[in-house]
Design a protein that fits this description.
Elements (H helix, E strand, L loop, with lengths): L1 H8 L4 H10 L8 H8 L3 E5 L3 E5 L1 H9 L5
Antiparallel strand pairs: 1-2
Length: 70
């Protein structure tokens, strides 16, 4: 599954993923890249008292392998 996610992400979306991982937010939820991540289930959307986002655990591992997060 890790390779399936990595193939879909592409180098241009890693910064967006790191931002979501660190803040649980996005500056533009309607951007083409963010929507692609949502539809691919690489970013997960939650709504409790407020709307927030998280990065799929497999994608978190990819970010760690690329030394983008600790």
């Amino acid at each position: 599954m890790r390779h399936d996610f990595a193939r879909q992400i592409g180098s241009d979306l890693y910064d967006l993923l790191v931002g979501v991982y660190k803040t649980a937010e996005t500056s533009d939820a309607s951007s083409k890249g963010f929507v692609k991540l949502l539809h691919g289930l690489m970013v997960l959307e939650y709504e409790n008292d407020a709307l927030w986002y998280d990065v799929h655990p497999i994608v978190v591992d990819l970010l760690k392998q690329k030394n983008l997060i600790e």
